[in-house]
Design brief:
By secondary structure, the protein is mainly β. The chain has three helices and 16 strands. The chain has two domains: 2-26 and 132-248, Beta Barrel (Porin); 40-127, no CATH class. 14% of the residues lie in helices and 55% in strands. The protein has a six-stranded antiparallel beta barrel with strand order 9-12-13-14-15-16. Strand 14 (195-210) and strand 15 (214-224) form a beta hairpin. The longest helix is centred in the N-terminal third of the chain and has 24 residues, at 2-25. The protein is elongated. The two termini are 36 Å apart. 30% of the residues are buried.
Length: 251
C-alpha cells in the first residue's frame, strides 16, 4: 500500500508539473507540431526577420491557420500555413485585445508562406484563437473499469497520455494512447478482504475537451500485475473499457 501511495503521489506531482510547465518546456518542439486557428480578424502582426521586427502592421483574417514558433516574454512568433477569406465589407477586427468595426479593405492581410510574424500577447488573447490540430500531451484518470465479461471493478488508473487532436465540425477530438499506474483490487483465497496491488495500465481512447482545460471520453485498456499476483488475477492483461477524465495541455 505504501509503495502504491508513493507511486500514485509521484504521478500526481508529475501531472501538476506538466500542467504548469509543458507549454513552455516544449515550446520549440511541441508548438511547431500543433496548428492553431484564429477565431476573429486579428490585427497587430509585424514581420520578423531574425531578431529584427518591422514597423508595418498586418491583420490575420478569421480562420487563418498558423503555428507558434516561439513565445518570448509577452510575445508570439508565428508562421501562417493558411490565410482565411479576406472580408469584402467592414468587419469586426480585434485591435489590442478590443473589438472594433473596421474597413479591412484599407488594411494589409498576412501571407501564408515562409514569413514569420510577431505580435504582442495582449493583442491576441486566448479567446482570439483556438487549437485546431496536432500532437498533444495530457493526463489521464480512469476511476472505474468495465471488464470484458461485464463486471464493474473499482481499480483506478492515473497516468499520462499522448495523442493527435483535430477539430471536426467545431468539436475537438483527440485519439490518444496512454499508460499509467493502476490500483488493482485482488482477492486472496485465504482471505475475504480484497487487497489492493500496484500494477500498470496501457490503452487507447477517444476524448474531447471541455473548455480547453479538461478531457472526457471513452478509453480501452489492459491492466498488468505480473508474477504470482498476475497469475491469480482473473483480469490480467484482459481488455476493459471506461470513461476517462483528464487534463488538456494543448492550450
Amino acid at each position: 500500500m505504501r509503495l502504491l501511495a508513493f507511486r500514485s503521489a509521484g504521478v500526481v506531482i508529475l501531472l501538476f508539473v506538466c500542467q504548469l510547465g509543458a507549454p513552455r518546456l516544449f515550446a520549440q518542439n511541441l508548438y511547431s507540431l500543433q496548428r492553431f486557428r484564429t477565431t476573429a480578424n486579428v490585427f497587430g502582426f509585424k514581420v520578423r526577420t531574425g531578431t529584427a521586427v518591422g514597423q508595418e502592421t498586418f491583420y490575420a483574417p478569421l480562420h487563418s491557420h498558423f503555428i507558434i514558433l516561439d513565445k518570448p516574454q509577452g510575445k508570439y512568433v508565428v508562421r501562417f500555413t493558411k490565410r482565411g477569406a479576406i472580408p469584402t465589407t467592414p468587419s469586426a477586427l480585434v485591435v489590442g485585445g478590443t473589438v472594433a468595426r473596421v474597413d479591412l479593405s484599407n488594411e494589409k492581410p498576412i501571407t501564408a508562406d515562409a514569413t514569420d510574424y510577431e505580435i504582442d500577447e495582449s493583442s491576441m488573447s486566448s479567446y482570439d484563437y483556438e487549437f485546431y490540430s496536432g500532437l498533444v500531451p495530457g493526463g489521464m484518470v480512469v476511476p472505474v473499469k468495465w471488464q470484458h465479461d461485464g463486471v464493474l471493478t473499482s481499480g483506478s488508473t492515473i497516468g499520462l497520455s499522448a495523442g493527435f487532436k483535430q477539430r471536426w465540425f467545431g468539436f475537438p477530438l483527440t485519439a490518444l494512447v496512454a499508460a499509467g499506474l493502476a490500483n488493482i483490487p485482488t482477492q486472496n483465497v485465504n482471505s475475504t478482504t480484497p487487497t489492493n496491488k500496484s500494477g500498470y495500465t496501457y490503452g487507447f481512447g477517444l476524448v474531447t475537451d471541455v473548455y480547453d482545460v479538461f478531457q472526457i471520453g471513452l478509453v480501452f485498456g489492459r491492466d498488468h500485475l505480473g508474477g504470482s499476483d498476475g497469475a491469480a488475477y482473473p483480469y490480467e492483461d484482459k481488455w476493459w473499457h471506461s470513461f476517462e477524465i483528464g487534463f488538456a495541455f494543448s492550450k
